[in-house]
Amino acid sequence: MAADGGGWSPRASTRVAAVIGDPIRHSLSPLILNAAFRARELDWVYVAFPVEEGNAREALVAMRTFAIDGLSVTMPHKTAVAGAIERCTEVAAALRAVNCVVRTDDGELVGHNTDGSGFLSGIAEETGFAPAGQRCVIVGAGGAARAVAVALARAGAADVAIVNRTRANAEQAAVLAVPVGRVGASDDIERADLVVNATSVGMARREPAGLPFDPDRLHQGQILADLIYDPLTTPLLSAARTRGAITVNGVGMLVHQAAAAFELWTGVEAPIAAMTSALGAHLRQRG
Ligand code: NAP
Question: What CATH topology corresponds to 3-113+253-286?
Fold first, then answer.
């Protein structure tokens, strides 16, 4: 079989991985993971199943019934799957959110969360950032912010300050990032080594397309990570570059969280370059 997958087509022996969510037809996970399976010449295929809210438990039953070997979980099912699955990793249990299900050799379903580790791997690859001893600010307090906060705290960050529009959500996220999580304020952005935008402000096809905070708080010597990957360059990333910060978009996190799932399912090292290249080509073509 050619490395680009030429000539490959599914057979009776083909192993299946899938993503469940609603909506799901826009998902980029099939693109990234099928690129990975083809690059490693694995007889696997990855498909998307639309599963309505409230049907997470049925989806897990279907995973068993159809012997699906790997399942990605996205909105709105991450919390429901964490509640319905027989076992979760410590991180997924703390977050009460599962984005990846592994079916073990003895048939047990185990829930993982690879968002936080995906973020750390992506930013390390692109900038060399190592969290130990670093002051971090996360703007936003939703599912992505929480995963990143927990990952930074567990990796030894000195401070994880959560700055969010709704204070109660910031408080809930900060509690998860023990022992260094706290609710922060905009002033913390200036003093941070790493600033993460984990709000949806700046996402393509969302209104308003503004900035999540005043970019004049950013400066040289900082890293600004925007978790958004569509568009590839958000208004915040442009503004941060102008002010001398090192910038990272959400592509690295998206690829590395998928890479972690690929490795959990197959036991094979993920082809990061092939996955990044497939995603980048698609996003540039889409514009
Ligand atoms: P979410 O759970 O819905 O959380 C959204 C967050 O954005 C909340 O903190 C919300 O604040 C804040 N927010 C929304 N609109 C805002 C506004 N106009 N002004 C200020 N704050 C606003 O979403 P999520 O799943 O965490 O995703 C957040 C972002 O991360 C999205 O852009 C998503 O595409 C991106 N993401 C990327 C990856 C990746 O792999 N690169 C993975 C996951 C998510 P309130 O608490 O006040 O509502």
Answer: Rossmann fold (3.40.50)
Distance CA 258, CA 236 (A): 25
SS (H, E, C) 203-224: CCCCCCCCCCCCHHHCCCCCEE
pLDDT digits (tens, 9 = 90+) for 103-154: 998 889 999 999 999 999 999 999 999 999 999 999 999 999 999 999 999 9
The helix (run of H) or strand (run of E) holding residue 49 is strand 44-50
Ligand 1 in contact with 145 (CB < 6 A)? yes
3-113+253-286 against 116-249: fold identical? yes
User: To which H or E segment does residue 182 belong?
Assistant: strand 181-183
Q: Whose CA is nearest to atom 34 of ligand 1?
A: 228
Peptide bond into 10 cis (omega under 30): no
The reply to whether 78 belongs to the active site is: yes
Domain edges within the chain = 3-113+253-286, 116-249
Residues whose CB is less than 8 angstroms from the CB of residue 106 and which lie 6 or more positions away in sequence, other chains included: none
Which CATH number is 116-249 given?
Answer: 3.40.50.720
pLDDT digits (tens, 9 = 90+) for 74-115: 999 999 999 999 999 999 999 999 999 999 988 899 999 999
